Amino acid sequence: MKHARRFLVFAACSALCCSLGCGGGSSSSSNSSSSGTSGTPSNQTIASSGPNVAAITVNSGPPGNGGYANGAFASATVCSPGTSTCQTIDGLLVDTGSVGLRIVSSVLTIALPQQKSASGSPVVECLQFLDSYSWGPVQTADIEIASEKASLVPIHVLSDTDFTVPASCSSAGPSADTVATLGANGILGVGLFAQDCGPFCVQSSTNTTPPENAYYECPSSTGCQAIFETLPLQVQNPVALFATDNNGIILELPPVSGAELSVSGSLVFGIGTQSNNGLAGATVYTAGSLTSSSPGNFTTSFNGQTFSDNSFIDSGSNGYFFPDSSLTVCSDSSGFYCPSSTQNLSATNQGATAGSGTVDFSVANADSLFSSASDSAFGDLGGPAPNYFDWGLPFFYGRNVFTAIEGTSAPGGTAPYWAY
Amino acid sequence: MSKGQMGMIQCGFLVVALILATAFPARAALGGDASTIQADQIHMQGTRRIIPADSYTVHEIQAATGTLREYISSQGIVFAVAWHGPWLPDMRQIMGSYFEQYSQAAESHHTARLGRRPVMVEQPGLVIQSGGHLRSFAGKAYIPDMLPTGLRAEDIQ
Question: Which of A72, A75, A352, B48 is at a distance of 20 to 30 A from A251, taking alpha carbons?
């Protein structure tokens, strides 16, 4: 079983290596820009193998999801804690904008222990996203990705018909807890933080009421009550719990021009901990810390607008999202821009406390990009946003992007940070 | 106390219960009158600050769950709400009588293929913009016809 999986990883790495022509062996990532002022990345090296390297693919995602635009997918092995009862699950959306492993319950075939509250009731989590919510139990698993291992990790199992969804949870929109509605077998949240909720869900002198749409205890099927959840019990960033290479990740994806069927790259664990994950020439851009008013954000200036402490880098967003009234919004592809010709644009990023540089990017007509239903990778996909700049997956194409986790020691700056 | 309220008390517990039941939707914000803000404040367990402007007033509720700003017209109606915080606010609570319209918009916005992207909904009677990421969400909803002169939509935040 293990050998078979290793073979698959090897095969995937070999295929990746061939497609990139990188000649085998592990190699460190590097961008030529050291000043951080160069807008266009170059000299990208994608790590091809190593115990800290997981293969990722931007493709349509797992069967039954209807096809996903600009989703980077990875595999993870989950085990019942302390046992060899394990399952490898692919089709997990790699999301640097969230934290925690979340798996659709219909995909999970092994039984995992249920987390219990102080009063002995099952703990169930509500995770609201912008237009949807995911509801389901918090369970505990050992996790292995590439050769990195973490034990006793609280994870979120999506969809549970045993417990009625509280109205305050379902108010965000429709449920996203199946492969079809989530678009993935699960989400691998490997963002800037160590837990998904953080201090917001922890009782303190200034936080005296549990948030209504986060953690619940469910003594009966209809009686779920909001509870506080201590940091170690919250759904965790699995990377932060790895025995080694636990201070962050690098997402490494090749350039994408126009629309492509699929592209392959690497999810590298650790920053500056191995020969293949050094910062090299990347510039560090610090993000707002968990105690700041805007955790996980930095500042982007674009077209005379400054989105102060309100912008972010997020592989789980599938485009560049920013306000630009001069760009036409698509009539067909709701939520995207459809300029009559591809627009070459430029913006400046400034870290919360350190790092500054310009980024050149392009926005193409989304209706044209989406014209072939089989394509899944789109380099110049953009769309409107409220008052912020979201550097989604297109930003990652052709650029190695580092995400350093809060509270860890990472080279080049104070985490949480991004570097590229 | 008004005549109507006097009457309710006289009609006994059942009627009071009915009134409470029908009053529930009005505790929410958008489209409601200014008295609903008190309910929002209690719901969020927050502190309130009132910021007057020329033709409207902003009531800002600060709580551990984030910040909610409610814009009140000179007629005393909530015509806009804006939020930011680590988690989304209870949309049922703050969208008030517009919650059904919001739900339908979210439903049609959510498609797996088009992925995880901001909600940008513009309908004749309602504009919704909602975005951000885990630990930092922000958004607003407003009734465009009720925007007072001098207040630009982009200034609602």
Answer: A352
